[in-house]
Structures are given as C-alpha cells and as structure tokens.
Amino acid sequence: MNYTTIGEIIRGDREVFPPYLYEAYQSTRRRAPTLPLIDVPLTISELTGPGPVISAVTPEDADLTRNAGTGGEAIGQRIIVTGHVLDDQGNPVPNTLLEIWQCNAAGRYLHKRDQWPAPLDPNFLGMGRCLTNEEGVYRFLTIRPGAYPWKNHPNAWRPAHIHFSLFGPSMLSRLVTQMYFPDDPLHNLDPIMQSVPTEQARKRLISTYDHTVTEPEWALGYRWDIVLRGPYATPFEAAEAGK
Amino acid sequence: MSKLPLTASQTVGPFFAPALLREDARRHVLTRPETVGERIRIEGRVLDGDGAPVPDALVEIWQANAHGRYNHPADQGPAALDPSFLGFGRSGTDEEGNYWFETIKPGSVPFDEKRMQAPHICVTIFSRGLLNHLVTRLYFADEPANAADPVLQHVPAERQATLLARHVDTSTSTSTVAVYRFDIILQGKNETAFFNV
C-alpha cells in the first residue's frame, strides 16, 4: 500500500477544481476563504460519510416532467439525462443518491429570489432525485432548461445547466456540480464554468447528445458520466499517511 | 494513481433550497426518542468577509453516535451501532445566516491503533460564491480531550479557537438541552480554519 498516494491525489486536484477566489465570479470575493486550507490527516471521520445511509427516493422522483403532482406535464423539450457514477478507479458507485435541480424551459427557477420576467410553469418544480443502480447508472426524465440572466456583470447569462448533488461512499466523494449541454455559445462567457482551470476539466462538465439514449416519439437523450473521489484506503492506512 | 479524471465542482448557486431543503431532504433533528446519548443543540451563523450573514448557505454535518461508531460500512470498530442514529444533518441558513441542529454529542472515534480523537462533528458548507464546498470540524470547547486530538494539532494554535463550539449558558431559558454555538466565518477576521481534504 502506497500510503502517500492518498495525499497526493487529493491535494493534486488543482487542475480539476476551481479556486475559491475567482474574481470574474463576483460572489466569490467576500465568501472565498483567504487563509490557507489546512492539511490534516484523513481519519475514519473522512473515510466514512452519509452516502450509504441516505436512500429514500421513489421512482416518481426521477421524472421531473410529472413530479409536480398536478397531473399535468411540464412544458419544454423532453429529455433523458443518464450516465454512470464512477470512482476514480473506474468502479461504479452503486446505490448512491443524486439530487438535481434546474430552471424551467423559459429559464426561471421556482424560487422566491428568482424574479426575472420569464414565465413559471405550474407543472414544473425543477427538482428530482434518484439512486444509481448496481452498475452505477442514474437516469432522469426532465425538460431541457433554458438559459437565464444574472447580475454578475453586464448582459450576463448562465448557459443552460442542471445542478447535481452526490454523496458517494465517503466524505471525500461529496460533490456538488453542474452539467452543461453541448454546443452552447454561452459556455465561454460564463465565469462559473470558466472557473474550472483546464479545458479538459471543463469539457467533462458537458453532456453529450446520445442517439442511443434518445427514445423514438418521446425524448432526446443526453449522456453524462460523473467521477467521484476515492475510496483510497482504509482509515488506519489513512491515519498512517497523515503522520 | 488515479485512472479516471475527476468531475469538477461547481457552486451550489442561489436556488438549491426547493431541492436540497425540501421537507424530506432537510435534517435539522438527527435524533429519535430512543437515540442513545446526551442531547445537544448546535446553532450558529454563517458570515462572509464583511461580517454579513450568508442567507443562502447549506450546512451539512456528519458524526459518530454516542458510542463513537459511524453508521457506515467502513467503520468496523468495536463500538456499538445505534440503529436509531444515522449521523447526518442538513440545514439551510435563514436571512440572518442562522443554521441549527438537534443531535447528540458524539463519542470518541479512533485515530489509529493507539490514539483516539476528541469528540467532533464534520461540517461541510456550500453556498453561492463557493465554487468548491468547504470542510471543517466542530470540536467542543469544554472537552479536555481536545488537547491531545491528533487532527486539531495540525491546525495552527491561533486558529484552533475557530473550531471550538462554545457552550451557551441556558440557565435562564427553558432549554433542556446543552446548546453549543458554532459560527462559520468564511473570510477575514477570525476566519474559520477550513481543511484541505
């Protein structure tokens, strides 16, 4: 067992993860920590996590076109979003919770702080969840979200995206991120997406259109795989590495 | 070595509440009546670099049970499981930046074959403006075991106080549980010590 690998992998993520302070994204300026993050040994506390014990979902939760419970269907281009959740060794992460949220087809969130003049859709809540299956596969039915303006800079628009929250097996695998759509001209204008430091890492946030996922007379298919950290070692090995 | 490159983090943004704080997704109260352990309430504020409240933060906690065992398959230690305690909490913040949990004081968990850790709670913070979430730990200011905690000693001495939840005097109130206050300061004076994990 190569104990030191634990630290190197985790602390070598700077090509993938955005910096805390990213000036072009104004909200980081007063919220990003300015003192150095502290290197600490990983222990049983970090190598466990809530992922395995959180599982309460119903099949309806994964259908955002109907889960408002109104009996009506959300307006918009119906899409299937599916993919694998994997760890960085390429192993599937089964039975892990995904929670997603998004704006409606017109680009408006059902949220009191979103008041721009686009219509709400009474049949769309914009939230869903599901568990991965034994092969680590998740699948949502939803509608394609619109782009929307925000006040970060003049004429700022967020590219269409879906927010994802995942737990995975440990505290180290916790991830909140956003999935984007291919061929969107707003990608290069979006400081949140551009905060990801490398082109390769940004590309991995973009789903691909997949005609094998598309269902005839029903919905277009998009595929997006998610790779989570770890697990790397047992807790005692990790404690050793921290010495 | 890592085989697959990781998926990058992105901010939780301002609009997560309907999904992540829906009634069956938020978890302020971690205990059930039969849960073993000393009842405590944890409360505090999330503040930004101007000292202003962060009204759109998400705070999650993860902790061991009163015996010092995590409800997780990787914890095969000798301490007893408590089937009524999962150890996961999730709270939003209100307009004044306040979050809160009702839980039990966790027991000590092992660090390695010889050493134990002081009782602590893992804390994760998400918000608009945080492109990656923040990770820290809550320790209990009145806990003698802190002095020998093998993780806390990695935190510079002058910053350790930012990880100590203070017991609040509730003798004049009707509260029946011990209340601990733990403010999370994202930036600036008394900035919370966040971990590179």
Q: Can you summarize the main beta sheet of chain B?
A: 9 strands, mixed
Unreliable spans of chain A are 1-12, 233-239
Strand content of chain B: 25-35%
Structural class of chain B: mainly beta
* CATH fold title of chain A: Protocatechuate 3,4-Dioxygenase, subunit A
Rg on CA atoms of chain B, Å:
17 Å
Question: Helical proportion of chain A?
Answer: 10-25%
Largest interface: A-B, 90 and 78 residues
Total strands of chain A: the figure is 12
The number of helical runs of chain A is 5
- Measure the end-to-end span of chain A: 15 Å
Q: What is the CA-CA span between the terminal residues of chain B?
A: 17 Å
What is the succession of H and E elements of chain A?
Answer: HEHEEEEEEEEHHEEEH
How many strand units of chain B?
10
Written description of the protein model:
- The complex is a heterodimer of chains A (243) and B (197).
- Chain A is α+β, with helices and mostly antiparallel strands.
- Chain A is built from 5 helices and 12 strands.
- Chain A is globular, with a radius of gyration of 19 Å.
- The longest helix of chain B is centred in the N-terminal third of the chain and has 4 residues, at 17-20.
- Chain B has one helix at 17-20; strands spanning 39-47, 57-62, 88-92, 98-104, 120-127, 134-140, 164-168, 178-181, 184-185, 195-196.
- By secondary structure, chain B is mainly beta.
- The model of chain B has no long low-confidence stretch (mean pLDDT 95).
- Chain B has a single domain (17-185), classed as Sandwich (Protocatechuate 3,4-Dioxygenase, subunit A), CATH 2.60.130.
- In chain B, strands 1, 2, 3, 4, 5, 6, 7, 8 and 9 form a 9-stranded mixed beta sheet that branches.
- In chain B, a hairpin with a 6-residue loop joins strand 5 and strand 6.
- Chains A and B meet through helix 1, strand 1, helix 2, strand 3 and strand 4 of A and helix 1, strand 5, strand 6 and strand 10 of B.
- Strand 1 (38-39) of chain A pairs parallel with strand 10 of chain B.
